[in-house]
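Known limitations

Structure tokens in this collection are predictions and should be treated as such. Users comparing against experimental data should check residue numbering before alignment. To illustrate the layout, the record for Protein arginine N-methyltransferase PRMT10 is reproduced below. The input appears on top and the generated tokens appear beneath it.
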Amino acid sequence: MGSYTNGVVGDQSGTSNGGDGGVAVDKGVDFANYFCTYAFLYHQKEMLSDRVRMDAYYNAVFKNKHHFHGKAVLDVGAGSGILAIWSAQAGARKVYAVEATSMAEHARAVVKANNLQDVVEVIEGSMEDVVLPEKVDVIISEWMGYFLLRESMFDSVICARDRWLKPTGVMYPSHASMWVAPIRSGLGDQKSNDYESSMEDWYRFTDQTKNYYGVDMSVLTKPFSQEQKKYYLQTSMWNNLHPHQVIGTAATVKEIDCLTASVSDILEIRSNFLSTVTLQNTRLCGFGGWFDVHFRGRKEDPAEKEIELTTAPSVNDGTHWGQQVFLLDPPIRVSEGDKLNASFSMNRSKENHRLMEVEFSCEIRQYSGELLPPFRNRYFIE
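Generated tokens:
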């Protein structure tokens, strides 16, 4: 099989300065490239229509009212304001709903329509710049991007926590985990065919340009091929996987305690993991990545009812996050009992701190004991 090289995870509502350990970013550029998306109601509607997401947050708040009753709450990246409204309905004394975009105007309208304007204060501005009149007891936020860390919004939550959360305060969610597993998928064949078609079209183009216009463009064939490979074969994909597409045991590659994590902890994710193939005579077509978040409260002040939000492959509709799919080209034939000894790394893109670069390295020991040639793939989550 030899050694392969493939290529980032992509955007929700986030940081302006990179925070602890981060790199300074131009706020105007960041807003134009990222925050502006969240100013549109269609995008808010997509998230609000995700029943798995909505049910998890609703249950986390209303099954743990003791964390909210009579308390001050900060909603980071408030969007339409629904989490702030739920916090108020659960008995919060005061809710500060911070939203970086003009969606704040719509949030104010929704808050007023629900007669909560005396409790919920919507503040339009960057979380890094906003000044609150008091420390808060709870920080609630839906900060998760594709494969959890895409968009780097957690930076803003960390900033809010370090500036405004009381020493006894709780985080909603409180914990997060990232998972990967080997998968089978027809997407790889489709993308490989798309790449081949793009190259056939390129060869026709260069022939015609030379024959009709007397200019030889074939010197650009290699860079064009690299460009198309990155687009079709090296850029990870969003997909809703079925559990039957997972062909081996899943592994946790990162666990995050939202109460203690720093930006430095998430700038670079590295993990070595083992997976055992669980299907007879199948194809390893790549890896799938997903995340869970948990609402546990804190050790000294635990949740009365712990709630989990998972984006794992589902027999139902799943979530709007789906899973991140990292395709292997070409696929590798594997069978039940084969062992995958893999390493995973994820870093922020140097060009855009909200995008990610991922690398998988893997060797496969077949059930018979034979060791297959290792492979290493790079991916871009965009």
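For this record: The chain has nine helices and 15 strands. The domain at 27-181+239-381 is CATH 2.70.160.11 (Hnrnp arginine n-methyltransferase1). Please report discrepancies through the issue tracker.
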